[in-house]
Amino acid sequence: MSAYHTIETPRSVMGAIAMIRVVHPDPSALGLIDPAPGQVRLGSVFGIDQAVIVRWDADSIMLMPHGGIAIVRAISGALAKQGVPIEEVVDPVGAYPEAENEIEAWMLYVLSQAASPLAVDLLLDQPRRWKAMGADWLSDADRAVEMADAKVLDRLIVPPVVAAVGRANVGKSTLLNALAGESVALVADVAGTTRDHVGVLVDLGGLVVRWIDTPGIDERIGAGDEIEIALRMVSQADVIVHCIDAGDARGELDARLESAIGGKTPRVRVGMRADLGPTKCSVDVAVGFGCDGQLAGIESLVQCLGESLVPRAFLADERPWRFWDGIKDVGSS
């Protein structure tokens, strides 16, 4: 048999405990604490972290270290160096023998990988929906949610990218910190504080997104690092958050960024510092500090972004969803 490992918890989201299944003809050869079948031990994993180690059978063990993203990546890399490469997409039927059928096995696997809480109930209901349709779940899949719609729902599994752009010192980092509920970006009253993009996973009302805080751009900046970083980020984004100062009567984006977006990527225009007065140009959402010192307008922004990425109508659609395609696409990329 060939050796491989699979990561059975979301790789892009931190958790308390990660689960890494290792399949090997002789797991004891990896230099890990090797429990007897059915037993549990606590031990070091390649000096990277302490982990609970479970032996399922003669050929497989489960490593359960702390669920930090860097820890999981480091352990996965160490296993690969030991000749145990990662298997991106598992055989769900083999991994979940308790499942009644293949679609339920896929549901259990995708559920373990989904980043967004909004995905949970939707995934749990998929076996019932496919059974109610009375169709073979592969040959009759064209009766399910259309492919374009399914790609939207796939954002519940793999976090979509949101790129915040705007002039220097407009408050993009402050906005990110308010959304994340903690300090995740440098904030200072100095233009150009964010010299590189800051990426962080943010839960927007149950939809987890990868928020990219790009460096501030103004008309004085040439073709330097700031504009190159911003151009690269907007090209990868699923939604653009255009942060506009309340005093900006034109509300125009730098022409270089405007060209890169090309009108194809959805955009949410956010009027910043609304506490200083009405926004002078048209915006979708206005945010500003209230008398309590909290940033008002965040809830409206969360709703607006949710509708841009995964509209409520998609969540309410009762047709079955080809949810396994999103995971397969990730594994094959």
Protein model, in words:
The chain has 333 residues and is α/β, with parallel strands linked by helices. Helices cover 31% and strands 22% of the residues. β9 and β10 form a beta hairpin.
Features:
elongated, 3 domains, Rossmann fold, five-stranded antiparallel sheet, Gyrase A, domain 2
The end-to-end distance, rounded to whole angstroms, is 25 Å
> By CATH's scheme, which homologous superfamily of the largest domain applies?
P-loop containing nucleotide triphosphate hydrolases
> What can be said about the biggest beta sheet?
6 strands, mixed
Structural class by secondary-structure content: alpha/beta
Number of domains: 3
Globally, the shape reads elongated
Task: Quickly describe the structure.
By secondary structure, the protein is of the alpha/beta class.
Secondary structure: elements and pairs:
Elements: E1 4-7, E2 15-17, E3 20-23, E4 40-45, E5 49-57, E6 60-64, E7 66-67, H1 69-81, H2 92-95, H3 102-113, H4 119-124, H5 126-133, H6 147-153, E8 161-166, H7 172-180, E9 198-204, E10 207-213, H8 225-236, E11 239-245, H9 255-261, E12 267-272, E13 285-286, E14 288-289, E15 295-296, H10 298-309, H11 312-316, H12 324-332
Parallel strand pairs: 8-10, 8-11, 11-12, 12-13
Antiparallel strand pairs: 1-3, 2-7, 3-6, 4-5, 5-6, 9-10, 14-15
Helix pairs in contact: 8-9
